[in-house]
Amino acid sequence: MRVVLWLSKALRVDDNPVLALAFKNSTEIVPVVCVDPREVNNQKISVNRADFFLRTLAELQGLLAARNLDLQVLVGHPEDVIPNLIKETGSTSLYCDLDMDQELLVRQHEALKRVADMKVSVHVSECSCLTDHRALLAKHAANWNPMTFEGFVEAIELADILPPSIPPTRISGRVELGKKRDFPTLSSLGFSEQPSYTWILPGHKAAETALDRLCSQSSLESFNKGSSTPVIFSDCASTSMLSPYISHGVLSVRRVFAEVASTLNINGEKRWAKERSNSSSFLSQLLWREFFYFIGRRTANFGKIQGNAICRKIPWRLSSPISGETDKAAETQLSAWESGTTGFPWIDAFMRQMKTEGWVHHIGRHACSSFLTRGQLYISWEKGFQIFQKHFLDYDYYLNAGNWLWISSSAFSSAFFRVYSPTRMPKLYSGAADFVLHFLPMLNKIDLRNLFEPWKDARFEECGYNSPVVEEDIALQNISNLRRIWPELSVQQRGSESVLPGGVQLNSDGTLVLRSGQNLDGFDDPAFEQWKTMLSDARNMLSVAESSIAKVMEEGTLPASGACAQKASSNETITFTASDVLYCKAVDRFEQAYDAIRKSKKFDQYQKMASFWRFQVNWGECIMGRAGWLIASASTLDALSDQGAGSDEIEEMASGCLGCFSPDGEKELKNQGAEQRRAVAKKLLLHAREKLQWVIDQASSDDGLSEAIYNEASEYLADIYLQLSKLTSDDGDIANTVGFLIKARKVFFSLLEATGSSAKYRGSSREGDLLAVA
């Protein structure tokens, strides 16, 4: 059996569960890494990060070749690249490791869904964490709330740590692809500069060397995070230097833990309890990583301020819309911070080290983070998050977000009054002067006693070094501001109950079952949440347009027609009326939502769902038609996806725009007596019944109609008959009947598009029914 192996974060052979699973269940494997140009470009990441990534892939290609595997490194959007590769190779299954990055998971989800729609089985393995987070939640009480590191580590037993998997030993059958793809280069990806990092070598050999160095008995026994020094600028760093290899997936965190634990002879819970309580030990650093992963995976928008339930909404500068419009002074200061030109040598040296080497000691990162946020600049930590993401070779979504939340006192810490001094802190470290002068050689003329406050030196003007962008003592003002507003900065002290990003759940064997035509089970789709917001905005705009029409009709005045009216008049089929003019002007506002939808990741899917409805509206119903199109799209998505908008929400939206489904029917219902209303409703219900029955009859002969959709349609048909029977009694509820009719229409459009039957419907004798009734 031939399969595609999509490697995302597990760029290794050792302890690679998804690789082992692919070897176990197949005879031929096509490994692939997708280089997404939306992520690997000179705006999003530095040339250092890009080079480290590409050189890591080149070495991985050689390691896999030793197992007769030809790694394909393809540039493109994974939601296109992966399905195309499966078609090209004729593979019957896809194996991949779950991308834990919240920013990338949506794209991976889209790629997996498209593959599942091809009737290809999808198997997903989670390879990034030390523990099974679902098992931890199941083991502890339902109200377990580990929002502190101490509370989290106390609950982690040695038995909770997952062991590394055994690497495959057999050789795969080699799959020969047709045209040889060129391996991507820096220039082909748009990078014109040359990398500048020198002492953190990429690849698996360098990672093994670093791990061996750490696991020497003397290194581990002497390891103490608290006593390590930040003033290192060569390959003799006082920390493990494993972070770039773990973040790229070159080294597995489970394997690192296992080898360190073995070296330290941690073989029982008593010994483990002592080790985990030592906050300066190496294994504690791995637990900090696990802590941020655990909280981050249960918190939507973990790397942002807005929509982040555990983040205090501090009114930072450059954090609009929380604090209003931004200011040019803050933009200038942010630029100086990134470029290492703030005028504070301690901060500038670290920032220049980041840009040059792609790495900074954790104390240096904390100093720079504090300076940007609650220390001197009071600028949003989101800006710092993006800059660290661009430059650090060891960038990790959850660690980056967790540390920024912590250092800025936005979460995890309430010690907002403890600020790193950029002038006094460096005096605590021997060698700080050499470190600063290495990255800021223009300060050689400054007396060493003034090195960290060079503006006080008589020769400062000769140096060509920047004056401070801010007064250091402004930190006192920032602390005062935070103390004043602190009581108001309440936060939710836990994330959601989802145990994997987006709520994705895995089976016990690591597989993820996808049903054709559906989203991932339990997947909370951020794109769909955005879609629902647009839909709500559209409904509000419709209400504004209707109010404007009523006002114009009452006052007897008309506004200037404008560009939309001119556009409308170019259509020969338009009968131009007062209402039409206002409808056209209202379309201007709808276009904003439409454009946003058109540019969204899922526009093609939505457009396909709604195309039949969209092209059946006439100009007199233009604004209604656009709203109807939006509602029909959301309705269809609801039928296609378990995670679509709830039926009550959809019905409410549809009720608010009843006219877009049947304006004539609505008028008849309002203008007639009870008996006439029942007659009209009965006619509409009969049409709905015929439409539903027609779709079921047509689709029953096809393989495309799923059992779930068929059952839903059958239930609606049964309810229609029940509603019709109620209409014959004196106590028939017209309001409920009309509400149900909206739901029936929703299912009709859902079924029509979900089964691909719209073309058949257009060609049938029932085509006129849609315009006559809906």
TrEMBL record:
Entry note: cofactor: Binds 1 FAD per subunit.
Pfam families: DNA_photolyase, FAD_binding_7
Keywords: FAD, Flavoprotein
Cofactor(s) the record lists: FAD
Any one GO biological process: circadian regulation of gene expression
GO cellular component: cytoplasm; nucleus
Record-annotated site: Electron transfer via tryptophanyl radical: W316, W381, W404
Binding site for FAD: 239-243, 282, 285-292, 394-396
Family: Belongs to the DNA photolyase class-1 family.
Name this protein carries in UniProt: Photolyase/cryptochrome alpha/beta domain-containing protein
Natural source organism: Palpitomonas bilix
